[in-house]
Amino acid sequence: MAAPALTTQPVPGLPYGRPLAAAAHDSRPAAPALVPSGLGLDSSAVRLAMVSRLAAQGLSEPAVLQALAAVERHRFVDSALVNQAYEDTSLPIGLGQTISKPSVVGRMLELLIQGRSRPLGRVLEIGTGCGYQSALLARLAREVYSLERLRALHEKARDKLRPLRLHNVHLILGDGMLGYPKGAPYDAILSAAGGDSIPQAWLDQLAPGGRLVAPAALASGRQSLVVIDKTDQGCVQTVLEAVHFVPLKSGLA
Ligand code: SAH
């Protein structure tokens, strides 16, 4: 596989030249998988097999692999889709939204922590969705603030996360385009929804030395994964591979 194209300014610590998920990511629902995963009573073997496949594709950050191995993705999807929970596929979570495929989630989490000398402190997540990625972030960061604009999904995620007792995850019903100033500054900001630009509020709320990872359709009009590092010299933007995330929308619903 080729290295990510479309790079603007290289940033130390990014995986240039590594064959990490260089193919275009697609977070839209795929056709139903024909191979049942056979979750049975214990899903850990199926989950570990998923993690092995992701590692074989290039995902290498141990903390991310451990989190993917620990969090039970099947608990976050509707019961009819449980057999596809450990396929590398995006799945519908209701209201036209999707849970991203595990390789995309892993890729974004890896970008968040790569090159950091210290563990993540406060992290802002835009688009709680079903709460799966929030549960992963809870294992990688000290505090997670996760915003969702759709009340029904916010409440569903709250119900899914409650039994996990993740005391460092704060779910907020709110418009993520405004960020969440109360928790700022953030060591990392991660968006699971993409607009035409990166909202200024996110840049303002990013801590010095912090990193933002989000899909956005910048100048080319094509949605790509964008990484922004807040350095002493200002914000440095890197555009990585093409992706397909649900739209970033303003206001609550
Ligand atoms: N990471 C999520 C993926 C959810 S899909 C998961 O693990 O399930 C993206 C989510 O972003 C959707 O739920 C959508 O409603 C939400 N979203 C879109 N625009 C938003 C905004 N301005 N503020 C908060 N959430 C937003």
Automatic annotation (TrEMBL):
**How is this protein annotated for GO cellular component?**
cytoplasm
Q: Which reaction does it catalyse?
A: [protein]-L-isoaspartate + S-adenosyl-L-methionine = [protein]-L-isoaspartate alpha-methyl ester + S-adenosyl-L-homocysteine
One annotated GO molecular function is: protein-L-isoaspartate (D-aspartate) O-methyltransferase activity
Report the enzyme's class at the first EC level: transferase
Q: What does this protein do?
A: Catalyzes the methyl esterification of L-isoaspartyl residues in peptides and proteins that result from spontaneous decomposition of normal L-aspartyl and L-asparaginyl residues. It plays a role in the repair and/or degradation of damaged proteins.
The UniProt family comment states: Belongs to the methyltransferase superfamily. L-isoaspartyl/D-aspartyl protein methyltransferase family.
What this protein is called in its record is Protein-L-isoaspartate O-methyltransferase
Q: Which organism is it from?
A: Malikia spinosa
